[in-house]
Amino acid sequence: MKKTVVGLLAHVDAGKTTLSEAILYGAGAIRRLGRVDDRDAFLDTFELERARGITIFSKQAVFSMGDTEVTLMDTPGHVDFSAEMERTLQILDYAVLVINGADGIQGHTETLWRLLKRYQIPAVLFVNKMDQAGTDKERLMAELKDRLDEGCVDFGGWQADGGEWNPGTDERESFAENLAVCDEAVLETYLETGEIGREEIIRMTAGRKLFPVFFGSALKMKGIESFLRGLFEIVRAPEGSSSFGAKIYKISRDSQGNRLTHLKVTGGVLRVKDALIGEEKVNQIRIYSGSKYETVQEAQTGTVCAVTGLLSSAPGQGLGAEAASELPVLEPVLTYRILLPEGTDVHKSLRDLRQLEEEEPELHILWEEATGEIKAQVMGEVQIEILKTLIRERYGLEAEFGTGNIVYKETILEPIEGVGHFEPLRHYAEVHLLLEPGEPGSGLQFDTVCSEDVLDRNWQRLVLTHLEEKRHRGVLTGAEITDMRITLLTGRAHIKHTEGGDFRQATYRALRQGLRAGKCRLLEPYYGFRMEIPAENLGRAMADIERKNGVFDPPETEGDMAVLTGKGPVVNLRDYQREVTAYTKGRGRLSLWYRDYEPCHNEEEIIGQAGYDPEADLENPTGSVFCSHGAGFVVPWDQVEDYMHLESPLKKKQAENEAERKVSAADVRSNGSEPGRVLGGAGGSWTDDKELEAIFERTFGPVRRKNPGQEGARSRVFASEKKRKPEEKKEEETEYLLVDGYNIIFAWEELRELSKTTIEGARHRLMDILCNYQGYKKCTLILVFDAYKVSGNTGEALDYNNIHVVYTKEAETADQYIEKLAHRIGRKYSVTVATSDGLEQLIIYGQGCRLMSAKDLREDIEWTEQLIREEKKRLGAPGKHYLFQGADKELNDYLEEIRLGRKETKTQE
């Protein structure tokens, strides 16, 4: 049997729940009609809903219609519970938008319409309460076409059984023409044949080009039969994928406290005992219809069900082949302090409220560590009353809510690089992030352009996870940040000392350092509004909106009423409804809906009131931790860049772009050619720039091999764009070579194999090799070995032939010894360090020393040995030595001629 999911959406009091009763009754799913007023509606399953007469939680009912099983989803209509509705949208195949015929299109109705467009859900409209006095079908149709879409077409006389129009020929032709103009291909067919088939209507509806409109009264069952007949001729079950996928839209708990994960199977089959999240398995599959459910062993594609056994699931999460949902458009704009009864365990209450937050997607619970307070971000006053009731019934707490404050957010105005370093003793991580402004309403987006040659993929994933795992605070008021693209540029880990928690600290600090270094902007929520007021009150309304820092479109008149639409800050408009009612003497109507976040109109005032000090926020530090002499020390955010071990990719890129710009400008001056666009400039994005793949090579510099006959070590130099302190003049006549002994032993295959038999033999073999090398190079060579694990060891330094050998003391590694020695002599003498430890290379470079890897050292030693052998061969074999044995051929021939008397020696007079 095919399966499809149809959702009911409406502004509050449009009669949505009454329509759901009529649909279920008309389809034979229930035997008697329930009523909201009588508190016995089939889908009002919670006592709170029955008492208030509104839908608070989304519910489902299942019934059959021919060969199709329909799951009807009833969603909340009140704006305070719109997040619950928006989560449900993501599992719908079709939507029925219910409109109050007496009131017409209201503010929240337009919000729902925008959401349907965002999620590309085909929609059918039902205009309810047409039995009330004053309703005008023609006026309503004109309003639908004007404020929603031109594709809204009256289907009131369409007979779905055969797709025929019942009334006279004129109305039938008008109906067909209205259908044809919704799609160019259909219009061409209609002009050629004069007919439009049922399949064309189905296709246009599914493609959101046609929006069928039905009129009736759900309470009196008028127009319901025609609506059902038309609806289910239009609706078609979508084709599902063979691979398993599911979308989670809700979390709840049953009367026994079992955690339920509500989901829709979007592909394949879900079976009991399937593992969905890690090792978490499905223990039970429930198909709900109203308050009752039946258990099944498997759920086919298109099934909406609730499963037990999942403990870490979350609304919006995708399972299997299904991707996670986008962030909700609608979000809380008010924050309240939760006042608990005296003597209440705050931490236990916080755990309970976190559990409630799982079930209420729009409820954001915040814990203020500094003040020990619990705060909640909510949509409005109605939701607060519901929450107080839920907390009392479930946890026995008489909680109160303090005064509501606006939920502000922060963003940045221009790209900036944030750097974070975390290096207490035996820990290490460094992260460089690019922070860029995002599109308004885009939230936070994360990406990486770091090469896996620079930072392993697992570490990169860990950085992205830490960026996503929490709500990061801004530096202006401590508000949550939003509308930013955060890209991992580069990073560094240590093969021995890095742990997972190190990258958490480095990532957090990099983000905060970037925010402190960049230009930030405070954002506040804005309402969209529509005012319908008497024309004589228009001047007062316009003056009020301007005074409240709002903006509006040119006013329109409808008879003796004026219509004003626009937007304004929530803080100024949230209580304006009472004023409108007062000065219009009850004739005016104001519709408000959440619109977006925009720059705060009184930013300096709000920042001053908040009194937030980012440096005093110990949970969100802006500085970094570095290590020196075996101890960690904190570097303030404005000095961090001077201590970083990796150069700034952003600064290097900017320098390259500037150089390219100058070259392009020179080309223009010389031949008038058009300069090419510089990648990564103000109009580009780092994620589109292929040059970033070469960051590692640019950072470490190219590997340049020596030409034949060229002497000296092959070194790898770290290029840097940083402005460093002026270096002291080195004493060129004194050269030092510091060698990390065990690093070289385990890097050279010959010594590594020898060390498996005897580590002592490997050490002495390396010492002998370096003695020959030093004899040719004539440098001061210091070979350092780790002895930090030897208990009670005080360290030892000795001379071995012509080199110095050092064994470090207890708790001191060769890395640390070389770093200290390099720090002491690196700025004064010419110092080269031989090691393949990447972290040690970076630190040594900061001391002004040259670098040589184990491979470099090996190649240079082999080249030196070759030179020694050639010199030895040139000097001849050992034995007797004659006077002119070492002379060249020309001199030997000349002397031989003199000996034989063929030439005379020249005497000086």
Structure, explained:
- With 909 residues, the protein is an alpha/beta fold.
- Helix content is 33%, strand content 26%.
- It contains 26 helices and 43 strands.
- The protein has a 7-stranded mixed β-sheet, with helices on both faces.
- Helix 6 runs antiparallel to helix 7 and helix 22 (759-777) crosses helix 25.
- It starts with a strand and ends in a 10-residue tail after the last helix.
Short description:
This protein is an alpha/beta fold and 909 residues long.
Straight-line N-to-C gap: 126 Å
Low-confidence stretches: 672-693, 695-732
Structural class: alpha/beta
Q: Over the alpha carbons, how many angstroms does the gyration radius reach?
A: 39 Å
Widest beta sheet: strand line-up: 2-3-1-4-5-9-6
Overall geometric form: elongated
Helices and strands, with pairings:
Blueprint: E1 2-10, H1 16-26, H2 47-52, E2 59-65, E3 68-74, H3 82-89, E4 94-100, H4 107-118, E5 123-128, H5 137-147, E6 152-154, E7 158-159, E8 164-165, H6 169-180, H7 184-193, H8 198-206, E9 211-215, H9 224-234, E10 245-253, E11 259-267, E12 270-271, E13 275-277, E14 280-281, E15 284-289, E16 292-296, E17 298-299, E18 304-308, E19 318-320, E20 334-339, H10 346-359, E21 364-368, E22 373-378, H11 381-395, E23 400-401, E24 405-406, E25 409-412, E26 416-422, E27 429-437, E28 444-448, H12 457-468, E29 480-481, E30 484-493, H13 500-517, E31 520-534, H14 538-547, E32 551-552, E33 556-558, E34 561-569, H15 570-573, H16 576-583, E35 589-599, H17 603-610, E36 624-628, E37 631-635, H18 649-671, H19 695-700, E38 731-740, H20 741-747, H21 749-757, H22 759-777, E39 780-785, E40 796-800, E41 803-807, H23 814-825, E42 829-834, H24 838-845, E43 850-852, H25 854-875, H26 889-899
